[in-house]
Amino acid sequence: GKAYWLKVYQLPQAGRLARGKPIVNLLPLEEGERINAVLPVREYREDRFIFMATAQGTVKKTPLSDFSRPRSNGIIALDLREDDYLVNVDVTDGSRDVMLFSDAGKAIRFREQDVRPMGRTACGVRGIRLAEGQRVIALIIVDEGDVLTATENGYGKRTPVSEYPVHGRGGQGVISIQDSERNGRVVGAVLVQDEDEIMLISDGGTLVRTRVAEVSVMSRNTQGVRLIKLQNGEKLVGIERIVEVQEEEQEE
User: pTM for this one?
Assistant: First the structure.
């Protein structure tokens, strides 16, 4: 539940196959602490918020300006309950829709205004109601496009954002992708456009880059299609939308 700062130039630049530098050599992490989310920030605008989601379904919104004074040892960003951990964070303008996805194939969409701004040391509020043993695996701040979901056995699909109804926060949500024996648990959900590419990552170190346009568009209550062929015992552990350098330059 802590936030740390790093200048991008402080990170070692290396090739795809390089092992990188241990994060403990860059940040003063405590024993057992690990990085769960990375957020690039150029300026600390007064009209922006950091929106956070935890594995147990808690959400919290804190003004971005509350993080404008870096401290070498980090600061509290969220008061986490026992056995809970941060899943992801994003920057919002206070007026968007928010989606949370569980590893059981459920998703909830609610208005960001349903979550009032809170200070850094607050616990947050319930975003989604989970059954025992379930956890949140993704946070999406809604924009135009499709939601691409993926499961641990290498299956997935695209579903238009418009198919996800808006409900009040704290409910059980609706089916996003079927949680079947074939599919296994859901491991990721990202917002994508037709022209995007995604990176599929397995626990065996396999990286597969795929065009989003090649992934089938299907309704929510379906199992999806094969995204990646895995070896025996290998599991998909994550998906990421690939942001091109050209796109970043246009945003600037």
Answer: 0.88
Contact 58/125 with Cβ under 8 angstroms?
A: yes
Q: Which CATH superfamily is domain 2-251 in?
A: DNA gyrase/topoisomerase IV, subunit A, C-terminal (2.120.10.90)
Contact assessment for residue 200 and residue 192, using Cβ atoms and an 8 Å cutoff: no
Give the CA count within 13 Å in the CB-facing half-sphere of 231.
Answer: 8
In sequence order, the β-bridge partners of residue 58 are: 126
Q: How far apart are CA 75 and CA 197, in angstroms?
A: 35
The two structure tokens encoding residue 48: 């922006």
Pick the closest to residue 171 from 135, 137, 130 (CA basis): 130
Domains in the chain: boundaries: 2-251
> What does each of the 252 residues of the chain score in pLDDT, given as a tens digit?
888 888 888 888 887 677 788 888 888 888 888 888 888 888 989 999 999 999 999 999 999 999 888 787 888 888 988 889 999 999 999 999 999 999 999 999 999 999 999 998 899 999 999 999 999 999 999 999 999 999 999 999 999 999 999 999 999 999 999 989 999 999 999 999 999 999 999 998 889 999 999 999 999 999 999 999 999 999 999 999 987 645 444 444
Residue 249, H or E segment: helix 245-251
